[in-house]
């Protein structure tokens, strides 16, 4: 099939930057079989979408059925989306959702916009809204589930593509970090239950520094108070100093990244950096663990909050993450970096993958 006959395809992933990054391999598969590939993202995911290889354009819509603080439903916003979808002249669409989400609201709008063939994972009866109703395999990682759907829709990764996460080459950031080797600690997360408390993060930074690691603390503009508190006098504070591509550059040059289950952990995986994943079991690690890079999962997978999707820890003291000892953190970093510092007591709660 010649490029002129390949479809114009829209890939939909409406939630966070981490979810968009996990969709990257599926996007590359779609791009390999399309003449034009656009990505429809929410405002939080759009910056990550612009970093994905194979994307020709990124459309943005703040969907009322997605997100932690969804906007109200308005005719104006819906009309604007419909106009953008219609102008795109798309032949096909693939809607990527997590196992707990429904693709049907956007599928209805895609049909009204005249998109010829729409595919999605869907447990609910879709009526005429989906042309391909795909069933997600149980306990499938988000990246592999997205690839499964792409393949079912007729899109394959090109030869030589290993299916790992990937972003466009990030900028060099030595002017921000300095030239000496370092470990990144990213203390924040959009969902507080998935991160250390600030005091616990600060103690980990102090322990890493005392063990001989140079530590760089990262965070967004809204997290400057947090990163300053966590970095203290022990680490370099880059809170609010980077946009997403620059953050990718900082993570790419790190020896390892210590982070919760949040977008920067997946960005670290996308630039090939090992991850110490502080993984609260409010969602299953088998679906959202760092993908395609060496990593160590730390945290109590059997905590009382397991599989609750809780945004705030329901257990006093946040034991599933704050209960992780400094020795466990040092051992995990050492395992991923071959650092000569004392690794301390190894724990069965850490699992290298």
UniProtKB/TrEMBL annotation:
Keywords of the record: Glycosyltransferase, Transferase
GO molecular function: ADP-heptose-lipopolysaccharide heptosyltransferase activity
Keyword Cell wall biogenesis/degradation: no
Coiled-coil region list: none
Gene Ontology CC annotations of this record: cytosol
Database matches in Gene3D superfamilies: Glycogen Phosphorylase B
Gene Ontology BP term (one): lipopolysaccharide core region biosynthetic process
Pfam families named in the record: Glyco_transf_9
Protein's name according to its UniProt entry: Glycosyl transferase
Organism encoding this protein: Streptomyces cahuitamycinicus
């Amino acid at each position: 099939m010649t490029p002129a006959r390949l479809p114009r395809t829209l890939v939909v992933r409406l939630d966070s930057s981490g979810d968009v990054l996990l969709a990257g391999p599926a996007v590359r598969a779609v791009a390999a079989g399309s003449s034009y590939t656009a990505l429809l993202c929410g405002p939080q995911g759009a910056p990550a979408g612009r970093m994905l290889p194979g994307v020709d354009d990124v459309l943005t819509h703040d969907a009322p059925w997605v997100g932690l603080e969804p906007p109200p439903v308005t005719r104006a916003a819906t009309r604007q989306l419909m106009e953008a979808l219609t102008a795109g002249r798309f032949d096909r669409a693939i809607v990527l959702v997590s196992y707990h989400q429904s693709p049907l609201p956007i599928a209805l709008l895609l049909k009204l916009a005249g998109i010829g063939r729409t595919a999605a994972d869907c447990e609910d009866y879709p009526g005429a809204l989906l042309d391909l109703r795909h069933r997600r395999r149980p306990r499938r990682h988000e990246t592999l589930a997205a690839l499964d759907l792409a393949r079912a829709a007729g899109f394959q990764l090109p030869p030589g593509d290993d299916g790992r996460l990937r972003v466009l080459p990030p900028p060099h950031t030595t002017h921000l970090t300095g030239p000496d080797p370092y470990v990144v600690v990213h203390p924040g997360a959009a969902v507080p239950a998935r991160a250390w408390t600030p005091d616990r993060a600060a103690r980990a930074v102090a322990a890493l520094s005392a063990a001989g690691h140079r530590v760089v603390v990262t965070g967004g503009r809204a997290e400057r108070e947090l990163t300053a508190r966590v970095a203290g006098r022990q680490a370099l504070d880059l809170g609010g100093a980077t946009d997403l591509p620059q953050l990718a550059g900082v993570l790419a040059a790190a020896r390892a990244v210590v982070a919760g289950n949040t977008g920067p952990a997946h960005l670290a995986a996308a630039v090939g950096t090992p991850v110490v994943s502080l993984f609260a079991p409010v969602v299953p690690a088998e679906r959202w663990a760092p993908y395609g890079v060496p990593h160590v999962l730390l945290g109590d997978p059997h905590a009382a909050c397991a599989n609750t999707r809780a945004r705030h820890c329901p257990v006093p003291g946040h034991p599933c993450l704050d209960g992780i000892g400094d020795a466990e953190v040092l051992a995990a970093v050492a395992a991923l970096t071959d650092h000569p510092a004392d690794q301390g007591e190894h724990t069965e709660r850490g699992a290298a993958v």
